[in-house]
Automatic annotation (TrEMBL):
GO terms for molecular function: biotin--[biotin carboxyl-carrier protein] ligase activity. The keyword Ligase applies. PANTHER family: BIOTIN PROTEIN LIGASE, BIOTIN--PROTEIN LIGASE. The keyword Ligase applies. Pfam families: BPL_C, BPL_LplA_LipB. InterPro entries: aa-tRNA-synth_II/BPL/LPL, Biotin_CoA_COase_ligase, BPL_C, BPL_LPL_catalytic. Keywords: Ligase. Residues 1-187 form the BPL/LPL catalytic domain. It comes from freshwater metagenome. GO terms for cellular component: cytoplasm. This is Unannotated protein.
């Protein structure tokens, strides 16, 4: 394992062979020893036994088969109201990295932060405010070498299945380079997604825009309509069937519907 190139991009990077969840470990360490975990501290693992996704889903990753890492950010000068952009930023960074290693493939975001190749998921992101509220831990899981049988769902893929061979080290470095570039611009503009161009880039790279979608909202509610745009707060605006006013979705699972 050689993470020297990755280490040059961030304040701190640690690697463990295996863990339950990099998000849990990094979030706890960031609170217990905050001075030792500054902005852009990274924890990556060869394998995870209880990685967490949105809506409390749990997943596992075999040794070296996927990129499992978490990034602690303490975005100075960025108010809490702009933190909703951070997982979108991470998803965009992953999408850019995947695009670079899969030239010609249809790669993009399924709002808010899943990365798809065609209709298949290759990367997921989960962000969590740490216990003392001083920062956010962003977890990223990118499928590297899994075969179809090793993937947790049918509509999933890996870089290997798409024809690319990328080492764990190269994936860490490549993703972090994209993330840090976007993050620094975001912080330099104090979390303004329009001024930093994050909103424009995310909209351009979002496969959900213009498609009919089904949204599963908290509380087991659902709605259907056409995804129109991402607003200044990172919410997905939906033109709901039969409604004149756009519906702003701040949190929820999106399903792309095949009929447009």
């Amino acid at each position: 394992m050689n993470l020297e190139n990755a280490a040059s991009l961030v304040a701190r990077i640690d690697y463990v062979e295996s863990t339950g969840s990099t998000n849990t470990d990094l979030a706890e360490a960031a609170v217990l020893s905050s001075a030792d975990y500054p902005d852009l501290s990274v924890l990556c693992a060869g394998s995870q036994s209880s990685g967490r996704g949105r809506a409390g889903r749990v997943w596992e990753s075999a040794a070296g088969a996927s990129l499992s890492l978490s990034i602690l950010v303490r975005p100075k000068g960025v108010s809490l109201e702009h933190f909703g952009w951070l997982p979108i930023l991470a998803g965009l960074a992953a999408s850019r990295f995947v695009t670079g290693v899969l030239p010609g493939a249809e790669v993009g975001l399924k709002w808010p932060n899943d990365v798809l190749v065609g209709d298949n998921k290759i990367c997921g992101v989960l962000s969590e405010l740490i216990g003392d509220g001083s920062g956010v831990v962003i977890g990223v899981g990118l499928n590297l070498t899994q075969s179809k049988d090793e993937l947790p769902i049918e509509a999933a893929t890996s870089l290997r299945l798409e024809g690319a061979s990328v080492s764990f080290d190269a994936a860490v470095t490549g993703f972090l380079a994209e993330f840090v570039s976007l993050y620094e611009q975001f912080v330099n503009h104090r979390g303004d997604a329009t001024a930093s161009e994050l909103r424009r880039w995310a909209t351009a790279g979002c496969l959900s825009i213009g498609r009919r979608v089904r949204v599963m909202l908290p509380g087991d509610q659902t709605l259907e309509g056409r995804a129109v745009e991402i607003d200044d707060s990172g919410r997905l605006l939906i033109a709901v069937d039969g409604e004149r006013q756009l519906f702003a979705v701040a949190a929820g699972d999106i399903v792309h519907l095949r009929h447009n």
